[in-house]
Amino acid sequence: MAGREPLFKVGKALGLFGLARRFSPGGLRILCYHSVALENEHTFLPKMFVSPQTFERRLAFLADRRFPVLPLDEAVRRLQDGTLPPGATAITFDDGLYGTYRLAWPLLRRFSMPATVYVTSYYVMKRAPVFGLLIEYMFWRSRKASIDLSGLGLVSVLAVTLTDPVARARALDDIVEHGENRCSEGQRSMLARRLAERLDVDYDAVVRDRLFNLMTPEEIRELAAAGLDVQSHTHRHHFPVDEAAARRELADNRAFLEPLTGRRLEHFCYPSGAWSVQQWPWLSSAGFKTATTCEPGFNYRETPPLALGRFLDGEHISDLEFEAEMYGYKELARRGRAGVRRMLGRAPVVPQSAGAAQACESG
């Protein structure tokens, strides 16, 4: 958001940040993170990972500026009954990556701030790195100009020039699609190892350091007992528009997580930010009270509980932009744009389907 930095600087210098906070007291701010980086993941995917230093600054800002950080369940309940304190904020994490356990949770405890982690359970159960992230990272980490992919069992791609962004992206997509749809977990692991050798990347180090592993069942149980709120993010990080398949995702996720947490899962997060109003009755009948999207904006009493908005924070967000979001400066701008659209007769409607596959990484 470097192009908006001058606007934020001017707005702050004119005192508009403080004014915005006064005019947006009732909105619930929900922050979205994916993980705190263990090594250099925040350089690899800055829209998905945040450095420990940046995350610590965020928590210090919330504490110093007296933003009340509430448990998600309490926050949405008080939003609906009109008792939300000014500046109320909830902190959420998607997926359940190991960095949440190793780095985020100790920082949250130091600042005495609650948080919710939406866990997708397949890779917890398999105790393996998330394949797509692992392959993308190895492509990013490699300094080779080209690689030969013959002999790896791939059909659509046999060689790739890594210095060609288009060819590189196409090969990456083909490898991930092949591994996720045509391989067992063991075959995926072997494919990743052999690919790492050709990319000249230390596969064992990445796996050992758990850069792209989720928390283990034991770690989830430990954090749930210590007070971290664990909620639903489907089993396979996919929430289909087919009702039977969607209900199976919810049921499989619950069957795995609820014995670890000892509590009924009642809050949901749409994987990759992709959602549809068609899915709302399925969530309601399954007992979910809320669902979070990746749509920007504060939440108000009229916000549909199954389409709560969040601010997607990451290493790509400057401290000034974060401040502009929290104070409501960006929210007033969003509401201003919405008002202009209404005046022009182009008021947006609640989307029947919103959120592309990259939505939760788009910031």
Please explain how this structure is put together.
By secondary structure, the protein is of the alpha/beta class. The protein has two domains: 2-126 and 213-361, TIM Barrel (Alpha-Beta Barrel); 131-209. Helices cover 47% and strands 12% of the residues. The protein has 16 helices and 13 strands. The strands form five sheets. A five-stranded parallel sheet has the order 8-5-4-1-12. The longest helix has 19 residues, at 243-261. Residues 349-359 have low confidence and may be disordered.
Question: Secondary-structure blueprint of this entry?
Answer:
Elements: H1 5-13, H2 16-23, E1 29-33, E2 35-36, H3 41-44, E3 49-50, H4 52-64, H5 72-81, E4 89-95, H6 98-110, E5 116-119, H7 122-126, H8 131-141, E6 146-148, E7 159-161, H9 165-182, H10 185-199, H11 203-209, H12 217-226, E8 229-232, H13 243-261, E9 267-269, E10 275-276, H14 280-285, E11 290-292, E12 311-312, H15 319-327, H16 329-343, E13 353-354
Structural class: alpha/beta
**Any idea how many domains?**
2
CATH class of the largest domain: Alpha Beta
The number of helices is: 16
Distance between the termini: 9 Å
Q: Which fold does the CATH topology of the largest domain refer to?
A: TIM Barrel
Record the strand order, biggest sheet.
8-5-4-1-12
CATH architect. name of the largest domain? Alpha-Beta Barrel
SSE succession:
HHEEHEHHEHEHHEEHHHHEHEEHEEHHE
**CATH superfamily membership of the largest domain:** Glycoside hydrolase/deacetylase
